[in-house]
Amino acid sequence: MDRLPFPGGRTAGSGMGHFRVAVEVGNRAGERFEAMEALVDTGATYTWIPRDVLQQLGVTPEEEWPFELADGREVRYPVTWTLIRISERARPTVVVFGEPGSPPILGVVTLEEFLLAVDPVHRRLIPVPGRL
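Below the sequence we write its predicted structure tokens.
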């Protein structure tokens, strides 16, 4: 069984609840965006973007946060706030500087900021109201 190398740790081959969506990641000023397909992973708290993509956009780390991997190890990764575009909407969100060349992952914080939820049966994102 294949496992995602970073973060999450869900089985990539199982297909249950996993699908990819078109997103664009941009610099904070919204001047440049890079299109990519991101794996939707509801087990990942934050959005994971390969470091090389962020660097090409001129995005720099602001802080380093601790994270727990699927195997229980605690690691630290740099993070920043930058723009993500899904469909026609762009929002600032926390992104983790992932390993160069690793697959992008769309985490639940970004989904909630966009008021989106996962429809695992139809493998799509659906709009939902915010919760108070």
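Residues 115 and 128 are 5 Å apart (CA to CA).
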